[in-house]
Write a structure and sequence with these properties.
By secondary structure, the chain is of the alpha+beta class. It has helices spanning 26-29, 68-82, 101-111, and strands spanning 2-4, 9-11, 16-17, 55-60, 88-93. The protein has 3 helices and 5 strands; from the N terminus they run βββαβαβα. The mean pLDDT is 81.
């Protein structure tokens, strides 16, 4: 396992956690992952994001911070990319009931966007 980029990137044999700016179009932000290989297994051929492998997409308190158009483009990109072959699941978790301290911070962050 390797941790890189100040702790924002994690690579292991079966798991990759990657920082991506989701405000940019997916062909620019995600497509480079298609040609990257795992630094923890440089001998292993293949991209970090493969449509032939089971994949879980986790969107946790993130889509609310980008425009609806960016969210739609991102989700559509994944639908198109995985449409032909693999098992894909997605978990989308967004806050509701913003009356606690976390919700207050989130509301303040959204005001500056």
């Amino acid at each position: 396992m390797s941790v890189e980029n100040g702790g924002t990137t994690l690579h292991s044999a079966k798991y990759h956690l990657l920082p991506v700016d989701l405000r940019t179009p997916p062909p620019e932000s995600i497509a480079p992952l298609l040609t990257s290989t795992s630094p923890s297994s440089p001998s292993k051929e293949g991209p970090l994001l493969s449509p032939s492998l089971p994949t879980l997409l986790l969107f946790e308190c993130v889509l609310v911070y980008v425009s609806p158009e960016a969210s739609e483009a991102l989700i559509q990109w994944f639908v198109d990319y995985f449409a032909s072959s693999s098992i894909v699941g997605a978990v989308v978790y967004e806050m509701f009931g913003l009356n606690d301290s976390f919700g207050a911070v989130m509301v303040e962050n959204l005001k500056v966007l």
